[in-house]
Amino acid sequence: MKRRKRWLTALLLLVALVFTGCGSKTGQEEGTGTRAIPVEVAEVSTGTVAIYDTVTGSLSPAVEVAVVPKLGGLVQDIRVSVGDQVEKGQLLVQLDTKDIEAQVRQAEAAVEAARTAYANAEAKIPTALKMAQANYEAAKNSFARMEYLYREGGISEQQWETAKTQLAVAEAQLADAENAHLQLETLQAQIKQAEAAYEAAKNQLENAAITAPVAGVVTAVHIEVGQMAGPTTPVVTIAQLNPVYAEFTLTESQVGKLAAGDEVQVKVSAVREEPFAGTVTEVPPSADPYTRGYKIKVEIPNEEGLLKGGMTAQIGLALDSVSGAVVVPVNSIVTKNNQQHIYILTGDNTVRQCPV
Description:
This protein is an alpha+beta fold and 356 residues long. 31% of the residues lie in helices and 37% in strands. The protein has three domains: 2-63 and 238-355, Elongation Factor Tu (Ef-tu), domain 3, CATH 2.40.30.170; 69-95 and 209-234, CATH 2.40.50.100; 99-207. The protein contains four helices and 19 strands. A hairpin with a 2-residue loop joins strand 17 and strand 18 (339-345). Helix 1 (98-152) packs antiparallel against helix 2 and helix 1 packs antiparallel against helix 3. 16% of the residues are buried.
């Protein structure tokens, strides 16, 4: 919302006398029936007066973060309230961890089982290899004898086939023993898989403690103890309010009056009458295609924390100036029947009303 008004300032030089107020003290002059009213007067002059546009906007935090849980769970404890100052990493909300703790214990046991299986298999390799080699040599020698006897007709074909089968089995067992490292690789992969599941369970346990991703002020708590939290709904909102930003939408006739880096005075009446010093940080190169306005941002230091997000802010843009204007103190202007006027003290000490 914008309104144009002429700012009357008492900082300009004063030349003529203007009636500015009446005292409450009354009295009777000696020898007459005329009541004497003490008054204050001020000098007026001509000067240059700036014409301003007052532009209204609102304040917003420098950073605002909606904290969303990484997993769902029952809210067990809430450690913060609205208005609390929090540090990055500080605990905000604690979810129930009974089920997750059971998963962690189960995953830890699976890791231990996988490691034990690997250790047992690794320990058996040398013995198994020696035994397989001995069995193979025995089966090979036995088959050689049976082969000779079979050719000489000393044994039956069935006996020869049995010896041949025993040799094939011994060869297969030796091959398995020699390739035992492949089994170890499989067991090693199972260990890694179990460790990954264990780490995932521990991460879930850590994620049940919802912490602040940034330092700032808690501006909202969206959940209560006993409710279910989920990974799609914020539980806490945190804002960084030093500095804050004032956003204003300017028209095409106003936007050229400001540039990034300009110092401006921002009035926030909800806090105090004295304006806050700010710096223009953003001036868009083109208008919003829908509103046709230019949204600028002004950075305002807020060390004392007086300014809050959503507060109404105003800036004055000097659009023009008038030279030779009659300048009077603001408190000398009286409004009566929707008409502004001043009282002028004449040379014979009488008062004359003059519209302005």
